[in-house]
Amino acid sequence: xxxxxxxxxxxxxxxxxxxxxxxxxxxxxxxxxxxxxxxxxxxxxxxxxxxxxxxxxxxxxxxxxxxxxxxxxxxxxxxxxxxxxxxxxxxxxxxxxxxxxxxxxxxxxxxxxxxxxxxxxxxxxxxxxxxxxxxxxxxxxxxxxxxxxxxxxxxxxxxxxxxxxxxxxxxxxxxxxxxxxxxxxxxxxxxxxxxxxxxxxxxxxxxxxxxxxxxxxxxxxxxxxxxx
Length: 228
Description:
Elements: E1 19-23, H1 28-39, E2 43-48, H2 51-63, E3 67-72, H3 78-91, E4 97-100, H4 116-143, E5 147-151, H5 162-181, E6 188-192, H6 200-205, H7 217-226
Parallel strand pairs: 1-2, 1-4, 2-3, 4-5, 5-6
Family: Belongs to the short-chain dehydrogenases/reductases (SDR) family.
GO molecular function, one term: oxidoreductase activity
Protein name: Short-chain dehydrogenase/reductase family oxidoreductase
């Protein structure tokens, strides 16, 4: 006697989640972007210098059912960033999204009185690290048909913003060159200007400001992700 029952259909393997790298993920918009992406099913690799803040971020992501890999690294360390890119290539083979929020916001000061150490750190973080990461991550983004989300903050030329404004403007000039160069060959480079948000960085720039009208970082993260 033969069994005429139809055998069950094989269960298709669950696709691996897409990988999003968030540099500067420990607080503010970076942390909000990491949480929002994880909530949408992305595996988030969160990079920042502050281990404790990353662990708190991971707790929130896991509590919401998301997945994250923590990378407590300094984006201004080129060897660490090379190791990061190598680890992504070895484990995932490609990268689908890079959100770059790492920034050094130097204290406001007149141009003639800028602190040399703050200026050097601004250049290292805002410009040099961005250039290093573009070189390391472009092949991974291209392999993953990926997107880079770069955030503009046009304060160049405003009084007392010499260090931050000049290095942020230089960063965006570099990013716009990269964007123009990759239109046909990828990766896709998206430049967005976030709304004014109630972050610690803004509080240092504008102490005493009424924060009630400012955007919430989580709402702003969801708005930016929707553009992608």
